[in-house]
Amino acid sequence: MKTNTSNGLWRERAIAARLIALLFLALVISPLMGVCQRLSPEITGKVFLDLNGNNLPDPEEMGIEGVVVTNGEDFKRTDAEGNFRLSSTRAMNIWISSPQGYQPVKSFFLPVESSRTEYHFGLIPAEEGKQDTVRVAFTSDLHLSDDPSVLSQVETVIEAIRSSQPHAVFILGDLNSEANSAEALRAERIFNEVNQFREKLLVPSYCALGNHDIFGWSAEGDSPSKNPLFGKLMYEKLMGPRFYSLNIAGFHLIVLDVLGGKKLPDRWDYFGWLDEKQQKWLQEDLSSLSHETPLIMLTHIPLVSSLPSLYRDFLHKYPSSTHEYQGYQVGVRYVANLDQWFSLLGPFRDITFISGHFHLFEEVVLTGRQKRLSFYCPGALCVWGGDNDIFTPHLNISFPPGFLLLTLQEGKVIEILHKIIELP
Question: pTM of this prediction?
Fold first, then answer.
């Protein structure tokens, strides 16, 4: 039989145990709640006509309706007052598709910050009508590294581009030769050198994601996958969005990330693929355009190319599939799921496709009834790699480093030049 003293002691111990349990739950749950709050607040903002150019929505400045805003995971159109609301979960950047006739006062994208929930985009009327012609350089495969012998030749590449006097430059992937296999600090350092390279061009520059730009996918072991910037997140943090659109000289330019990945026992492997999120965004982006609008589609892996035939017929290496993914045979030299989304481009009559990846100059034009499809590969910027002479024994042709220079005017391509970069 328990005494009153023992009963009191038992009750005190029971109460103490409950208090300890509650304290433990508080210590565990509170940080998790904080993480959830940090990960899932809403992003709000406004797209507006910026009359004074300060990139802040003043009371007298009108909002712009129907602008597509995205964080890479979700997208919305601005309402009648130009306002938008998005989730910030896993968002690295937030960006807009500038409507035709407008251009951003500053950047078309903004990095997402944990302490910030409002993001505004001021637009002004586009200046493209003030110039008779606009020259745009399309480049690819810079393959920049921290090798001193490479860095010593970078100025040659910069001077070659600048001497062509472009108004803008697009670098279509493989900016960083080491990100897919280097350790994190080195990969980040080279991306920062890429941005220094871009600054020295002295004109606006835009980038696309290449397979060498995906952090850790080719590295051995699982340590890179534990890094919070594993995969495409390092590129998004340091270089910007993986897909977006803008307008230049009457053309609507669309940059896409056509790189999918599959986990293998010792690494990740890449292949050509356009994911479902981008397909939905692309449909929305195109829906507000007139079908008479000329398009320029920019990707790292080409959508159409002669290279598969050259590999098959001369090298007896047909670039066939390496894996199966979602019912498709996928590989590294083609985009496997074109049948899912290429029809979105069907109503448009004039489309130019420009891609890199193959380190060669290529021009393929399909002309049909009231429709023209042009496909270009602009060569490679990495002069330190020398000529691409893989087909020289068979075709007596090699492909030097270089880039593509298009002169644009009011939705027309006035001049097409393949520019070769020669070392001094």
Answer: 0.88
